[in-house]
Amino acid sequence: MDELTRLKIEAAAFRGLVQHLQKRSDVQNVDIMNTAGFCRNCLAKWYKAASEYFGNPMNYEQAQEVVYGMPIKDWKSKHQKSASAEQQKTFEETAPLHAVISVVT
Q1: Are 60 and 44 spatial neighbours (Cβ–Cβ below 8 Å)?
Q2: Domain limits of the chain?
Q3: Predicted structure pTM score
């Protein structure tokens, strides 16, 4: 596969993931993080890191808006719930498995 085709496929897969996460606003970040070791915020951090790497710096809030599909304050007020004590405990216990934010080229 040539490089351009690979990049197009990866970009389309990323957009599909972002669209799915935007549609599934019922699923809380803490649940995704506790299960998969990454969440919407991690995705925004990867996006920001890649943007900076490729010479188009943006701030974290701008990257979050790409991932959430709206300003983060709006998403929080519409969809975010407080984490339960059990969710917080699981989050702490799984911390060593959480995503490392870096640019993969």
Answers
A1: yes
A2: 3-97
A3: 0.92
Terminal C-alpha separation, the chain: 16
CATH superfamily of 3-97: SMc04008-like (1.10.3340.10)
Q: What is the pLDDT along the chain (105 residues), one digit of tens a residue?
A: 999 999 999 999 999 999 999 999 999 999 999 999 999 999 999 999 999 999 999 999 999 999 999 999 999 999 999 999 999 999 999 999 999 998 877
**How far is it, in rounded angstroms, from Cα 19 to Cα 28?**
15
| Percent of the chain as helix, strand, coil, to the nearest 5 | 70, 0, 30
Do residues 14 and 71 make contact, with C-beta atoms less than 8 angstroms apart?
A: no
Amino acid at 40: R
